[in-house]
């Protein structure tokens, strides 16, 4: 609010926005550096375990620690976003990941390496929470759907980048050097974001109602319904993505590399899916209808990708990548509406991240025990996951938002 010296009347300052595509791409690629650091491990986990004399169960913590940290720190991260601003939090988060990667490059024991991954995990959840809030502060509202669609590509691009580069680099250098390269990538992107996006807090829309408290976010019924819906989606999605390769290889339907490629293709398709769903939401002025469509697409994906037909597996992968992967963009685009106050967007995003990580953690934990109930039949376990997909649709329908 400012004072007009000629009239003596107060006037509201019109927010000034940079080009939304530029802002969205810079923020997204900054987060890509975080995702790339997360996924630099899987393709060389065996090399790391051997180098550090780690058991298989210990080595899995090099990835699991990210989900574990996310469950406990996402909500506090949302509070920090509210206090210090999303841009500062994203910059700090990615710089922290760079520091963690440097510490990891110096690790001489498995314990030290896991500790360094925990530091990276803290940075990752801070970036995952602050990134969507940064979009809401630095992108004009009419372009928010498209911006969130671009944002939703960050994990897929980071995974593809890491899965492509890490196996290539390990043939000519040590894993320690690879850690340094990924650290430099993160620190460079932190600097790019800091010096190319204007302002420290972004455009904060003042609430016309009474002052809100951080704890008010827990009173938003529609936010809880959205979080629970997203959690059930991630539960079923992560179970699918984690165990489809094993199913396809053990059933003799595909080789190890072929089974891995089946899971890579949906992630590639998800990049286009997220952008298309984001653009459609801007054009149609709705998130909920598109969210329901995307959630429903997870059902055929689960049924087909664990089938006995290779062609059906590929069709299921297309359902997953081109339709179901529109869910994250639509959920994140809806947070601002369901929290009902601009000041609660940060904490709201934090709560969404908690439920996302919780769903992923539960999905990977219960799938094989469920398969064991059916004599080790993974197809029946996948059919059981459909119940969670249906529950996600019901919860989304119950939530009130556009």
Automatic annotation (TrEMBL):
It is a multi-pass membrane protein. The keyword Membrane applies. SUPFAM superfamilies: MFS general substrate transporter. The chain crosses the membrane at residues 20-39, 59-81, 93-115, 121-139, 151-170, 176-197, 223-247, 259-278, 290-307, 313-332, 344-368, 380-399. Gene3D superfamilies: MFS general substrate transporter like domains (1.20.1250.20). GO terms for molecular function: transmembrane transporter activity. GO terms for cellular component: plasma membrane. Residues 19-402 form the Major facilitator superfamily (MFS) profile domain. The keyword Cytoplasm does not apply. PANTHER family: CHLORAMPHENICOL EFFLUX PUMP RV0191, PURINE EFFLUX PUMP PBUE. This is Arabinose efflux permease.
